[in-house]
Design brief:
Strand content: 15-25%
Mean pLDDT: 96
Bound molecules: pyridoxal-5'-phosphate
Helix content: 25-40%
Low-confidence stretches: none
Shape: globular
Largest sheet: 7 strands, mixed
Number of helices: 13
Order of helices and strands: EHHHEHEHEHEHEEEHHEEHEEEEHHEH
Distance between the termini: 28 Å
Number of strands: 15
Length: about 375
């Protein structure tokens, strides 16, 4: 039996989402823009899926466009850059996902924007004073993720929105890791743009969404049939969107069980520390996603731990990059300024609402064996 604890990388599609999308491949396959009955049926299903997806983040359906993934949603905002402003400065956290940071660095290298990267604290949290100091009257856009994908640490996006808006800047929130795991509310938090990704919340790969607050304008990355409010031309993959709608519905219904996931994660950490007291749990005292545990095993190497767990049928991710034998801590570990030995031994365990106590026990049993032998 495979034990899957890599849900921040991707998730298994929910059975209900899978079953609901199948007829849209085989029977109701009309182009959702077509005027005939198969087109109308596709369009009805698409709009129904849009309503459910929008509801999960408390947006109006008209403010939500479908995309192919979280990376694309981020790119549409960053490359499309808010229109109607001469400002060119962008402020982003040092631990933003590469789909944000790499895009911003490219725009910076072309002279299209001025980028200010904001450091985080050693425990993975954000000190709002740093954001406050970075956002000025030249700032057009601020990019702050809702939850960090390696540590699971949650960032105070509502406070960031308040500061950004006071200075006339807009806020992009990459909520790819948060949607479906914690309550996300674009109205409450006054978010201007928000990215989400289907495959992180038990929908299929290949579908994402972007919330664009009503009235805000972006330059489309490409042109065509003017789909999705003119922002994302191209025929929509209706089956995938339908599955995302179902997955969002299921996620909304299961947010109440997030505390059960958190308690499983907390038990895992407690037992892990008991069997390996040298382990370091990152962001443990910070507000965190309920499902994420990033653990360093000083003296060991993350890629070898991942390989040994894999051999024991446990799937997890390493937090460190291993390139031609040279081990480097991840950018997130570096941003947290952790010692090298801790950075190169980080392993991420990410649960889902389908994870069982028995799977956690089996993972701990495998870990007991793995950490008792040196790596390297
Ligand atoms: N943003 C964050 C925080 C992520 O964790 C990821 C994926 O790991 C992405 C964006 C990219 O999402 P996608 O794989 O849907 O492009």
């Amino acid at each position: 039996m495979t034990i899957y604890l890599d849900n921040n990388a991707t998730t298994r599609i929910a059975d209900e989402a899978y079953a609901t999308m199948l007829p849209f491949f085989t029977d109701i396959y009309g182009n959702s823009h077509a005027a005939h009955r198969l087109g109308r049926a596709s369009n009805d299903a698409l709009e129904h899926a849009r309503e459910k997806t929008a509801k999960l983040v408390n947006a109006r359906p008209s403010e939500l466009i479908f995309t192919s993934c979280g990376s694309e949603s981020n790119a549409i905002v960053l490359r499309g850059f808010p229109k109607n402003t001469p400002r060119r400065k962008v402020v982003a956290l040092a631990v933003e996902h590469p789909s944000v940071l790499a895009t911003l660095r490219r725009l910076e290298s072309r002279g299209e924007i001025r980028l200010e990267v904001v450091d985080i604290e050693r425990d993975g949290t954000l000190d709002l004073k740093r954001i406050d100091a970075a956002i000025d009257d030249q700032t057009a856009l601020v990019s702050v993720m809702m939850a960090q994908n390696e540590t699971g640490v949650l960032y105070p996006v509502a406070e960031v929105a308040r500061i950004a808006h006071q200075r006339g800047a807009l806020l992009l929130v990459d909520a790819v890791q948060s949607v479906g795991k914690v309550a996300v509310d674009v109205q409450r938090d006054e978010i201007d743009f928000l990215s989400l990704s289907g495959h992180k919340l038990h929908a299929p790969k290949g579908i994402g969404a972007l919330y664009v607050r009503e009235g805000l304008q972006l330059e489309p990355m490409w042109l065509g049939g003017g789909h999705e409010n003119g922002l994302r031309s191209g025929t929509i993959p209706v089956p995938l969107a339908v599955a995302l709608g179902v997955a969002c519905d299921l996620a909304a219904g299961s947010l109440g069980s997030a505390s059960a996931v958190a308690s499983l994660r907390d038990q895992f950490e407690e037992k892990l520390l008991a069997l390996h007291p040298a382990a370091v749990i990152h962001g443990k005292s910070a507000p965190r996603l309920p499902n994420t545990s990033l653990v360093s095993f000083p003296g060991l190497f993350s890629d070898e731990i991942v390989a040994r767990l894999d051999a024991a049928s446990v799937c997890v991710s390493g937090g460190a990059a291993c390139d031609s034998g040279k081990r480097e801590p991840s950018g997130v570990m570096k941003a947290m300024r952790v010692p090298h030995e801790i950075g190169v031994s980080a392993v991420r365990f990410s649960l889902s609402r389908y994870t069982t106590a028995a799977e956690i026990e089996a993972c701990l049993t495998a870990l007991r064996e793995v950490v008792s032998h040196p790596t390297g």
